């Protein structure tokens, strides 16, 4: 038997402190609470590139598919060398959601199954009661960058640790090891809730289905450590499929 922690959301704790009745109901509640996300991609502009976002849109390179618009630029190099972020960030309603923590049991023969042999409910806590930490999605190194952002409807599975514990390390749970991550997304005025960690391991919510919006918002920006502010948005354009 293999056991691992899992994390789900609901709008309330189990009634009267009772444990949830079945895993299918736990997942149904979770998916109804966490169904929207933003897909964010950030690319470093090629070093010798002297164009603009307007040029890329005008020439049909920055399009609604959100793909790397520099692939046809000379000496741009492979996308993987310039790709700084490629993430789907769930939209967490931290003021309303409860986080539930479970211990799932799986067969040693199939530990990657989506359906556990059994589970135990360990804890439920409002997100707004968790300890907070800040992080930064956007680059801090001087240079020019391009970002694409798209809204999407997503069906998420239960959260799991992106870096699983060692098979030789027994499972453990302590609410004090949970952290809620907040970030300024570019030049937003307010912090956005962008994720959670447990024991400094990122909690990942696997995508089971995804329906992207038909438009992508492209942004061109510059980072200059000698300027105030150091982040400078140059232009923003939305493209439609």
Sheet with most strands: 6 strands, antiparallel
**Portion in beta strands:** 35-45%
Number of structurally distinct domains: 1
Q: How many β-strand runs?
A: 14
Q: Uncertain runs with pLDDT below 50, 5 residues or more?
A: none
Report the radius of gyration as a whole number of Å.
21 Å
Keywords:
mainly beta, 6-stranded antiparallel sheet, 9% helix, elongated
Written account of the structure:
The protein has 241 residues and is mostly beta strands. The chain has one domain (2-240). The chain is 9% helix and 44% strand. It contains 3 helices and 14 strands. Strands 2, 3, 7, 12, 13 and 14 form a 6-stranded antiparallel sheet that branches. The protein has a 5-stranded mixed sheet with strand order 6-9-10-11-8, with no helix packed on it. A hairpin with a 7-residue loop joins β13 and β14. The chain is elongated and about 60 Å long. The N and C termini lie far apart (48 Å). The mean pLDDT is 89.
Topology, element by element:
Elements (H helix, E strand, L loop, with lengths): L1 E9 L12 H11 L2 E9 L8 H6 L20 H4 E8 L7 E9 L11 E9 L4 E5 L7 E14 L3 E2 L16 E6 L8 E7 L2 E4 L2 E6 L2 E9 L7 E10 L1
Parallel strand pairs: 6-9
Antiparallel strand pairs: 1-4, 2-3, 2-7, 4-5, 7-12, 7-13, 8-11, 9-10, 10-11, 13-14
Entry summary:
The protein has helices at 23-33, 53-58, 79-82, and strands at residues 2-10, 36-44, 83-90, 98-106, 118-126, 131-135, 143-156, 160-161, 178-183, 192-198, 201-204, 207-212, 215-223, 231-240. The protein is mainly beta and 241 residues long.
């Amino acid at each position: 038997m293999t056991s691992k922690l899992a994390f789900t959301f609901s709008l309330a704790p189990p009634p009267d402190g009772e444990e949830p009745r079945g895993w299918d109901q736990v997942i149904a509640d979770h998916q109804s609470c966490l169904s929207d996300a933003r897909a964010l991609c950030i690319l470093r502009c090629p070093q010798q590139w002297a164009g603009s976002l307007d040029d890329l849109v005008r020439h049909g390179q920055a399009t609604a598919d959100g793909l790397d618009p520099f692939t046809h630029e000379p000496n741009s190099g492979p996308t993987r060398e310039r790709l700084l972020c490629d993430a789907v960030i769930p939209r967490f309603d931290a003021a309303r959601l409860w986080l539930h923590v479970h211990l799932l049991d799986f067969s040693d023969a199939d530990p990657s199954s989506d359906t556990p042999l059994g589970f135990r409910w360990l804890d439920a806590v409002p997100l707004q009661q968790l300890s907070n930490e800040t992080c930064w999605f956007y680059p801090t190194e001087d240079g020019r960058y391009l970002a694409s952002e798209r809204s999407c409807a997503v069906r998420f599975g239960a959260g799991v640790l992106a870096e699983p514990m060692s098979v030789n390390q027994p499972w453990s749970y302590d609410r004090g090891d949970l952290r809620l991550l907040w970030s300024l997304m570019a030049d937003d005025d307010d912090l956005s809730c962008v994720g959670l960690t447990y024991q400094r391991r990122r909690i990942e919510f696997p995508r089971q289905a995804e329906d992207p919006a038909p438009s992508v918002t492209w942004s061109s920006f510059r980072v200059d450590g000698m300027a105030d502010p150091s982040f400078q948005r140059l232009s923003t354009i939305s493209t439609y499929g």
